[in-house]
Write a structure and sequence with these properties.
The chain is mainly α and 401 residues long. The protein is built from 14 helices and four strands. It has a four-stranded antiparallel beta sheet with strand order 1-2-3-4, sandwiched between helices.
């Protein structure tokens, strides 16, 4: 291959894909007389990963739903079922579960989040298992579509280890906050984890601010999308605490897991012999500060929340207005979930948003992510099933998270 008068360090991934998120800057021209071969090498800090964990999560959630429906066995436990031709996989009646799914008793048996069982029965594992269960077909589809769009992109850029930890820990954080504020319901679903991925996207943009172009537009767009999704949480039967808990956990984790080195350090590290280079730090000071502060807040927050939960603390006793974060009562609906309000209006809304993801790198005028990407946001999951409401008039009273 012929050499160029201004040699570079091509990234092998760059030649394969035109939509790379990060590209190291070109290395400076070497001194006159210095050999200038083009060296192809994979830059590990910006390599593209082949996503497999997120698809595996989707398969696992789907398999768990099938197993849950098998255990539910509607024909044996109910007078009437939907889709009788499915046999024991048929769904509970609409008046009990409008999402085409099992009964709340089955979900509880399979590992749904039940605060009383966590505290009195020492079943802390429910804080994790509830994220792998779903209230119905509609619930499962909404979650998995969101996970597919958001998770695949993150795993491709950051790898399965970091994204996997981000997903699982965010789900735990969402379950923890939900359990502290909503203690009279059982909870299932993965939207706490999905909101964690969304929070990680925001903190990743902030901590890697200097290596992005169009960052202001991307930042504003993310804030608007997040605000819209959280605003949905003030509707009745929408548990916004899992959304908020998962988002905050993912936001802090993003500063820890999704930090990237600066271009100058990468170019210096991978420059061929003979190229002049100056000493460049791997990370900027603000990145290191955010990393330390976020890690401390994350450890303290999760530890404190878990201790409070295991001691039976109801967070509403210490925050008289916090319940408005999950539901704002109006003349059209009530936010009370006690049996006396079994006839409260049920809302099951799934929102689609087109997210014009304008994030792109700016290296020699190259903006690989200028194309728009449709993004299904996880604003409706998981669903909290009001067990008391179900016992009253055999009614499936749910809250979307």
């Amino acid at each position: 291959m012929a050499t160029d008068s201004t040699p570079r360090i091509p990234n092998r991934a760059n030649s394969r894909r035109s939509s790379n998120l990060i590209h190291p800057v070109d290395v400076e021209t070497p001194p006159v007389g210095t050999p200038s071969p083009i060296i192809y090498r994979e830059i590990k800090h910006f390599k593209k990963w082949i996503p497999w964990l997120i698809p595996a999560f989707i398969v696992a959630n789907t398999v768990m739903f099938i197993i849950t429906m098998y255990v539910n066995n509607c024909p044996k436990n109910s007078v009437s079922c939907i889709a009788d031709f499915l046999g024991r996989f048929s769904f509970q009646p609409f008046k009990e579960n409008p999402l085409l799914g099992p009964s709340s008793a089955t979900l509880q048996k399979m590992g749904a989040l039940d605060v009383k069982k966590v505290i009195d029965g020492h079943q802390g594992w429910r804080l994790i298992t509830c994220n792998w269960l779903h209230g119905g077909v509609f619930h499962l589809l909404a979650n998995m579509l969101g996970l597919l769009v958001i998770g695949i992109r993150l795993e491709r850029e950051f790898g399965f280890i970091r994204v996997g930890l981000l997903y699982i820990i965010s789900g735990f954080g969402g379950s923890l906050m939900s359990a502290l504020f909503l203690q009279s319901n059982i909870s299932v679903g993965a939207s706490g984890a999905l909101f964690g991925l969304l929070g990680g996207m925001l903190s990743e943009l902030i901590t890697n601010w200097t290596i992005y172009a169009n960052k202001v537009a991307a930042f504003v767009t993310l804030l608007v999308i997040i605000a819209i999704n959280l605003a949905v949480g003030i509707l009745p039967h929408v548990d916004n605490f899992a959304h908020i808990g998962g988002f905050l956990t993912g936001f802090l984790l993003g500063f820890v897991f999704l930090i990237r080195p600066q271009f100058g350090w990468v170019s210096q590290r991978y420059a061929p012999p003979g190229y002049p280079s100056s000493a460049n730090p791997k990370f900027k000071k603000y990145q290191c500060i955010l990393w330390i502060v976020s890690l401390i807040l994350l450890i303290v927050g999760l530890t404190l929340g878990l201790v409070m939960l295991l001691r039976g603390v109801d967070a509403n006793d210490h925050c008289s207005w916090c319940h408005y974060l999950s539901c704002v009562p109006t003349s059209r609906w009530s936010c009370n979930t006690e049996p006396a309000y079994c006839s409260v209006t049920k809302i099951n809304t799934v929102f689609h948003f087109l997210f014009p993801f304008m994030l792109s790198t700016h290296v020699n005028g190259f903006n690989p992510l200028s194309k728009r990407i449709k993004l299904w946001l996880p604003n409706v999951d998981p669903f909290i099933i009001g067990l008391k409401g179900w016992l009253c008039n055999n009614y499936f009273d749910h809250v979307t998270k």
